[in-house]
Amino acid sequence: MQKINVKPGAKIEDYKAYGSLYSSVLDFLEQSKNSLQAIQGCTIWMINSTAIGGGVAEMLPSQMRILRELGASIEWLVIEAKEEAFFDLTKRMHNAIHGSGDGKFSEADREIYESVNRQNLSKALQLIKDGDIVVVHDPQPMPLAAMIKKERNVPIIWRCHIGLEEDTEVTDAVWNFLSPYTDDYDHFIFSLPSYVPKSLKKKTSIIPPAIDPLSHKNRALQLHKCIGILYQSGILDEHKAILYHRYNHLVRRILPDGSFGEVNAQEDLNFLYRPIVTEISRWDRLKGFKELMQAFIKMKHDNRKFGDPDSLEYKRIEMTLLILGGPDPAFVSDDPEGQMVLKELTEQYQAADPSMQNSIAILLLPLDNPKENALIVNALQRSSSIVVQNSIQEGFGLTATEAMWKRKPVLVSGAAGLKYQVEHNKTGKINEDPTDIASLSKALVYMLNHPKERDKWGFNGQSRVIQNFTLFSQLISWLDVFARIKT
Ligand code: UDP
């Protein structure tokens, strides 16, 4: 069990200074007064299974910073597990809650599940006192809070970041396996109402995930800064075919003081010819990387076969570049499948013909330094013409919200979470079936050939995020749950 240090970051005043965020900050400050009062004197313990990578680790630091600034006591603990079998099991649970896998869980599974959680118990008990609040994120540490509750007088909350809209045999099996622990919980939080299993309906709240607009992942980056980050990270150098061409002229125009020189009209036009399509996610089969690569290759093949080489449309498609990015599996301990998924994707890439390979980059992002990782993701998202999230299942895709905040048009699958976030033909396109390669390829072609729509969708996306998916709207709901559970 490790206590995670949260580094200083943006303050409430910084958010207020952004005109578009001002009213949500004020609403939050107004609506949180009573709830903050209710949790005075107790500590909120957030417990999950990793301090880096994925949506939970992404959101917690910003939430903690703001709550601490307002005087709340909140800490973050990460469970430790040496046994590989533990994360194999919890990954199977994760997949099963999404309705995938065989849904088979044995008594041996239960043994490893409980024994790893028990190994983390004594450290937790040294820290957690009667009257505190314990919040467990996702299935990995679920038995731990139930064990803590036996020793301490604390309410326990389970925050589930994943979900499937309909019950299936597989989801029933995993909820069944988890029922001895869920029975002990006082409250549950899901991202969408449709994810709540029947057995838990009575004591749940709904909190859609949200982004921190001023984190390193989302803060504004001037173009020269983006280029600098991509150069430093090696992406520009190694993948000349991708970004060097696109920014070649501009790179030479960065002045010694770091400012950005004039842009030449001809070069602006060249931008149109080199669109970039990006998906950045964990290496997880449910993220639909494989299908996206297939659709991209199909799009190019079809273009070469049926397109008119002199047309603008042909050139756009021909020049388009695909970036698939995700964490370097060497740094991810709680996702044993990542390495395998990446291997499958690499094999698919190697099997493509060389002219396709030149247009595709698979990037491993350095997760060991969270700030560096966040800035690279930020710069990549900002350099993209279209941000894709082709998830087979997605409880809620933070990546889509991040892209919308950056005014990027998004192309997402019809997975429930993404459908809730994205408005079809208003903030991007929803391609219902992420495994339908032909329709995905068609959606890509449409978006690539409608730059004005893309601009409009990007703009609408940012407004949608400000209204619904920022840190502050989410914190109001969290505080409300804490206050209710304390009274
Ligand atoms: N992410 C990252 N580096 C990577 C891959 C993903 O920082 O190499 C971030 C991504 O920007 C997002 C989060 O991890 O903030 C993923 O959250 P999401 O809800 O999209 O998916 P999850 O991983 O929780 O299933």
Description:
Keywords: Carbohydrate metabolism, Glucose metabolism, Glycosyltransferase, Transferase. One of its GO terms (molecular function) is glycosyltransferase activity. Homodimer. The chain is α/β, with parallel strands linked by helices and 487 residues long. 52% of the residues lie in helices and 12% in strands. α7 links the parallel β4 (133-137) and β5 (156-159). The structure holds uridine-5'-diphosphate.
Task: Set out the fold topology.
Blueprint: E1 2-3, H1 12-16, H2 19-38, E2 43-48, H3 54-69, E3 73-78, H4 84-97, H5 107-119, H6 121-127, E4 133-137, H7 142-151, E5 156-159, H8 169-182, E6 187-190, E7 204-206, H9 223-232, H10 235-238, H11 240-252, H12 265-273, E8 276-280, H13 289-306, H14 312-319, E9 321-327, H15 338-351, H16 354-357, E10 360-365, H17 370-382, E11 386-389, H18 398-405, E12 410-413, H19 416-421, E13 428-431, H20 437-448, H21 451-468, H22 471-486
Parallel strand pairs: 2-3, 2-4, 4-5, 5-6, 6-7, 8-9, 8-11, 9-10, 11-12, 12-13
Antiparallel strand pairs: 1-3
Helix pairs in contact: 2-22, 4-5, 5-7, 9-17, 13-20, 18-21
This protein binds uridine-5'-diphosphate.
Short description:
With 487 residues, this protein is an alpha/beta fold. Helix content is 52%, strand content 12%. Uridine-5'-diphosphate (UDP) binds next to helix 3, strand 9, helix 17 and helix 18.
